[in-house]
Design goal:
The protein has helices at residues 18-39, 43-56, 61-74, 77-90, 95-107, 111-124, 129-141, 145-158, 163-175, 179-192, 197-209, 213-226, 231-250. The chain has 13 helices and no strands. The protein has a domain at 1-91: Serine Threonine Protein Phosphatase 5, Tetratricopeptide repeat (Alpha Horseshoe), CATH 1.25.40. The protein is mainly α.
């Protein structure tokens, strides 16, 4: 459930000295043009406009956030982290900068720092499903499977129709040998999103582990009907699952 979301913060000039208000309006012109350029795929133009907005109004936290997102998309990971960190320095009470920086740490597999940033985002705004989902990914990467399970469950509590949250929770349940729970969650994933080929494959493998070969084969057939490109990798996964099952039965 890896999605970068930059929540746009509108800086309101009301109450600022007149000269500040005029300066901010100039900065906003560049900022909004930067957003347009970003949407159009003009990465360098967007960075230039966000940089100009910052040059005009150095406390423009939203411009740092947006520039950080564009820098990340361009592959400038360290530049993105620096921008998100600056946005936090300017305005430490908004969750977006912590989330965005945490997401970069997650992609770097710096799980501890990712978790800390997601924790802070949730401390500020507790019901952000996307943050719980990504914190669940970070906790899973760090080996905290109970914590990951709890976070994915929280996503489901907030967004009961979130197919990926059920799928993610199912994979953790599978990793902790809760095969029945995994099958139930994969089934719910499919109920919400019947085109989820990987959920059919994963449920089939879980059913195979329980000796439900006929039901498993139906799932594999459906998976390949939806995505024929999975044939080779799925055959290898089935072969390995059968090996593991037979090994367990002999032990």
């Amino acid at each position: 459930m890896k999605r970068v979301v930059v929540w746009v913060v509108v800086v309101i000039s009301m109450g600022l000295p007149i000269c500040w208000g005029q300066t901010l309006r100039k900065a906003e012109d560049y900022y909004h043009r930067g957003l347009t350029r970003q949407e159009q795929g003009d990465v360098d133009g967007a960075i230039a406009d966000f940089s100009k907005a910052i040059e005009i109004f150095p406390k423009y936290s939203a411009a740092y956030d947006s520039r950080g997102a564009v820098r990340k998309a361009k592959g400038d990971v360290e530049g993105a982290i620096a921008d998100f960190s600056k946005a936090i320095e300017i305005n430490p009470d908004l969750p977006l900068s912590y989330y965005n920086r945490g997401f970069v740490f997650l992609e770097k597999q710096d799980f501890d720092r990712a978790i800390k940033d997601f924790d802070k985002a949730l401390e500020i705004q507790p019901n952000l499903a996307i943050v719980y989902g990504n914190r669940g990914d970070a906790k899973r990467g760090a080996g905290d499977l109970p914590g990951a399970l709890s976070d994915y469950s929280k996503v489901i509590e907030i967004e009961p129709e979130n197919a990926e949250a059920y799928f993610n929770r199912a994979t953790v349940r599978q990793d902790t040998d809760d095969i029945d729970g995994a099958i139930a969650d994969f089934s719910r994933t499919i109920e919400i999103n019947p085109q989820h080929a990987e959920a059919y494959a994963a449920r089939g493998l879980a059913r195979l582990a329980k000796g439900l070969d006929t039901e498993a084969q139906r799932d594999f057939d459906k998976c390949l009907e939806l995505n024929g490109n999975m044939k080779g990798p799925l055959e290898q996964r089935i072969k390995y699952a059968k090996y593991q099952r037979d090994k367990k039965r002999k032990s």
